């Protein structure tokens, strides 16, 4: 296992350690899986409209057809490119052993389904546990939409401001940026 994956999982476990020690959990509850809520943009992936690529990045449009970590989507203009965060598949595989995982994005349902068709085509990791902006309150995210005891939930997101009520659950991750152009993302 790469040191990156180890470090990420240790951080996650560290975040949940205090929760498992809570005296309010009995032994049976302690054996249950914990829950991991993952953001998409700038956390698991970075996406960009092709029209925003710099001249030096345009070669990536051709590369997208042959790389496993870079895809092109959208039949009409504007097309987009999506780049996976390095070691994403390894991370999901290991985290899936410890957590029941959700995706929670302020992107649209269609966008989330498209990204997940690449990173989780068999719905092995997330199943139908996907929350998008159509269901979420405007401009913020809430664990009220997750069917789990909130004391057992860890959130990984590059934006802390969208989780005003759940800071103790949040592990803020460094923003993953691959393309040069800056877009507003949550
Ligand atoms: Mg984000």
What characteristics describe this protein?
186 residues; alpha/beta; Rossmann fold; 8 strands; globular; binds magnesium ion
Explain this structure:
It is a single chain. The protein has about 190 residues and is an alpha/beta fold. The two termini are about 30 Å apart. It has one domain (about 30-170): Rossmann fold. It has five helices and eight strands, in the order ααββαββαβαβββ. About 25% of the residues lie in helices and about 20% in strands. The strands form two sheets. Strands 6-5-1-7-8 form a five-stranded parallel sheet. A three-stranded antiparallel sheet has the order 2-4-3. Bound molecules: magnesium ion. The site of magnesium ion has 9 residues, from loops. Magnesium ion binds near residues 42, 43, 158, 185 and 186. It is an enzyme of class 3 (hydrolase).
Residue stretches low in confidence (pLDDT < 50, at least 5 long) are: none
Rounded mean pLDDT is: 87
What name is given to the CATH topology?
Rossmann fold
Helix content: 25-40%
C-alpha end-to-end distance: 30 Å
Structural class: alpha/beta
Number of helices: 5
Shape: globular
What share of residues are in beta strands?
Answer: 15-25%
Summarize the structure.
The protein has 186 residues and is α/β, with parallel strands linked by helices. The protein contains five helices and eight strands; from the N terminus they run ααββαββαβαβββ.
Helix and strand topology:
Blueprint: H1 3-20, H2 27-30, E1 34-38, E2 45-49, H3 59-63, E3 70-73, E4 80-84, H4 88-98, E5 99-104, H5 109-119, E6 130-131, E7 153-157, E8 170-172
Parallel strand pairs: 1-5, 1-7, 5-6, 7-8
Antiparallel strand pairs: 2-4, 3-4
The structure holds magnesium ion.
Magnesium ion binds next to loops.
């Amino acid at each position: 296992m790469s040191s990156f994956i180890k470090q990420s999982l240790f951080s996650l476990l560290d975040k949940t350690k205090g929760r498992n020690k809570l005296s309010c959990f009995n032994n049976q509850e302690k054996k249950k899986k914990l829950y991991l809520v993952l953001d998409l943009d700038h956390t698991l992936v970075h996406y960009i409209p092709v029209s925003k690529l710099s001249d030096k990045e345009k070669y990536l449009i051709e590369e997208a057809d042959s790389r496993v970590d870079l895809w092109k989507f959208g039949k009409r203009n504007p097309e987009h490119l999506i780049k996976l965060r390095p070691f994403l598949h390894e991370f999901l595989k290991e985290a899936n052993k410890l957590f029941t995982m959700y995706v929670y994005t302020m992107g649209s349902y269609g966008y989330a389904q498209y990204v997940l068709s690449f990173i989780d085509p068999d719905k092995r990791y997330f199943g139908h546990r996907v929350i998008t902006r159509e269901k979420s309150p405007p401009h913020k995210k809430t664990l009220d939409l997750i069917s789990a005891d909130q004391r057992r939930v860890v959130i990984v997101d590059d934006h802390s401001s969208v989780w005003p009520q759940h800071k103790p659950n949040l592990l803020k991750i460094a923003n993953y940026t691959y393309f040069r152009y800056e877009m507003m993302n949550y």
